[in-house]
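Lab meeting notes turned into a lecture example. A postdoc, R.K., suggested we walk through two folding results consecutively so the class can see how the record format repeats. The first protein's sequence and structure tokens come next.
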Amino acid sequence: MKAQPEMTNDPTPARAIGRPREARADRAILTATLQLVAERGVRDLRMDDVADRAGVGKATIYRRYRSKEELVSDAVATLVSEITIPDTGSTRADLLTLMTQAVDLYSGSLAARLIPTVIEEARRSPALATMIRDQFLAGRRAALSAVLKRGVQRGDLRRGLDLDLALDVLGGAIFYRLLVTGGPIDDQLAAGIVELVLRGFAPTRNGGGA
């Protein structure tokens, strides 16, 4: 008599299958959100459309996100991978590494299309503005801040450096071209910004004090 397959109540296989499905749903929701924001803007983004594009039920989205702002913020945050603070031994090279990464991001077609509409909506929504600052901008500013502080310690930058101003200079030119002039966002821009910061915030002749 042919032996019957052994039955088991072990729930492990079901859980193992469930995890990839959840991960796929997460990715599909965030990808769909980025695509739709780039196509239509934040204001015209509808959860029904995200669900249709992602191939999930709307309830699946609401189990993960309490608001459209939260969904958009999480989706935009995926554009920025974990940022490693470079330490090449050179303040110039460290800054250039981070600025080149920023140029690569903002010169890409997806980010170039969706960032302007996200910033526009953030002006109307304090909640979205806070989420974007915390989840999208904070990591890069923290990395740049660490490099600038190390530059002061090395004597490459002046003591008493206005850190917020230096950070705004580093990011401002890229956003100005992205949002206003439409000028090229390229490696030449990254190098020019770094040189501007190094010269503009160089140590003073009396020994580096500000």
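The second example is placed directly after the first for contrast:
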Amino acid sequence: MNIINKFSQKTIECIKYYVYILVDPRSDKKVFYIGKGKGNRVFNHAQGAIKNPKPEEKYEIIRDILSAGGQVEYFLIKHNLSEEEAERLEASLIDYAMLGFHSSLTNVVRGKGSDTGVNNVEEIEIMYAAKEVNIHEPTILININKKYRPGMDNRELYDITRKYWRVNTIRANKAGLAFAVYKGIIRGIYSIKTNSWKFSKMENGRRRYEFEGEEGNEQIKARYLHKSVSGYRRRGAQNPIQYVNC
């Protein structure tokens, strides 16, 4: 469910022109509109459907979704484009959709430039509008860039955060919190059980450890979740583990 209906000014300045889709959340997640724009264009259709009584198919679908208690789902297919690039991509996607293909892609990796590729609007806002934090508690930052994907469930996020890491167990056991960090932004917060870092396995001749914990409380999440820790990351650092106040 969408939790925003407009982008912040900072996000608007960062994403420039983009190509977007509107998705019907009912049944098979059908894409019913492809468009291009900038600013808050992606949100205008749902607002227009309420204000505009015209029997246009796009608006009829939106009104049906809203009357059923749902919300249109918004995704940016590509952003940080020039107006000409957005026009070309929009036209290509519409042509593809008109052909009626049903795909089951076998690509192992996403294409070049996927950082500005498909994301829902909440993820776009998080990426560009995240505020910097000042961490007061003993905390371990865990970079999960290689394992994270937007939309993963809480259990999966916890599992990829808690194992398997090369850590200094003396320092790690001083940390009461673990932050799952993706591209400099906190995606998960966990309270670490006291002295719970334990040896887990050997990998490439090195000892790997894991911790036990539980999801952080609401007060802690309100303070840190979806905030930026870029000020704490050492430029060029290769180690996915970083200790703060411990």
